[in-house]
Amino acid sequence: MLNSIPMPDAQRLRELFEGAGYCEAHLRKHLGAAELPSPRLRNQPRLLDRTSARTQLNALLRWFWLAMPQPAEEVGDLFPDEFLNLLFESGLLVRRDGALAPAAMMLPIEGFLVASDHPTAIQRKEGGMVLWPNPTSKFLARFAVRRPSRATLDLGTGSGILSLGAAAFSDTVVATDLNERAVSCARFNARLNGIANIEVLAGDCFAPVTGRLFDLILSNPPFFITPQSDFLFCDNPMELDGLCRRLVKEAPAYLNEGGYMEMLCEWAQIKGQAWEERLGEWLTGTGCDAWVMKGLTQDPEEYAQQRIRDITYDASNDATAYQGYMDYYRRRGVEAIQDGLVVMRRRQGDNFIRMEEVPPTPTGNLSELILSTFAAHDLLRENGSDEALLGIRPRVASTVRLEQICRPGEGGWLPESLVLRLSSGFRFHMDVQPLAANFLASCDGTRTAGEAIQVFAAKADASPETVKRECLGMLRKLIERGFMTEA
Question: pTM higher than 0.85 for the full model?
């Protein structure tokens, strides 16, 4: 476990790392790719070659990237005594068998320097290991609602990477974890990065923050659906997806009115039950609006193989492990395992639940995407009647693009279809007819929906009532999907 050192010493430690060139951009260039040593990639010889010259940076990389002990006589004179003393005091470096050995990995990421356990801890089956900032935590960080927060909770903090990012827009961040090793690591990382408004507490789920309320809760919990609980950081300790369900049910009691809970999770699809029905039971009656964005769907066979491959490179026990996974899924009727992001907002009144499969690789400002999507539902709720909706001033969102699809024909290209497409966020798209596209172009925020429909109806070969009904239906759909906003 890492030791808490005074803030000035922690700052000096980071400055010494950075002074040696231990930063994200430099490492990517120096190593050729910022990849960790991996038996699967078979990249150890290349990384050893790239770090063979006797320099400060290479010595740090061999310690804190490659997890290599180094003889004191070979590297000791490369660093000032002050630096080595800080490495020992913090617990980053230990003396072992006459060598100086690393006790952590150091990952420079998005302007932070983050300590964690090295990937080799997975192969050693260290169940309490602290995972380095991985793609799921980075994905959730992109969606974090970045508005001023009086108090933010990072539930299941691990290395503390979500807390480090949330500290910039939060008065206070509370980071919790069941794993005492993770608590130690998160505290160390807050100090190392000079952040004073992070409080780190040990305990299970919401127990450490009983009686407290938050404007934002972020959680990347251990959601893997496995027959065993080998690793605290990833294996769900409850039956199937029980932990994620528990967090959804308990979170509203810790949210201020208007506060958001954002959680990455996996859930099981059970034979005879639609996935929407399973998630609907989690979310109904919580006092929260909810948006579930479903991502990947895997069959149990594929999922089991992936999980086994992730935790070991030794194939000798694969058959037994795989059989254990499949027995677990078959006995429980698991047909598929799905993942996604659940976003909840505490709000009094009748709550909406929106569940959908979303396109991959969203782009742009994803915090704004969350806020604008919930604002769109508010707009539709507040203008639920046709009469009220006719009074708003709709405007096509700035991220909307109109694409014309053509096919080759005699004498040139022939128009085939028109497609509205969002250029950021999730790339939702919608086919439209030319007349409808012209109507939408008139929705520029300068006139009410009623006025725009009245002008359009005069040009359309249809009854005014039919035009109004169809235009309002289209407006509702476009507002909900983010194609249209109110001026």
Answer: yes
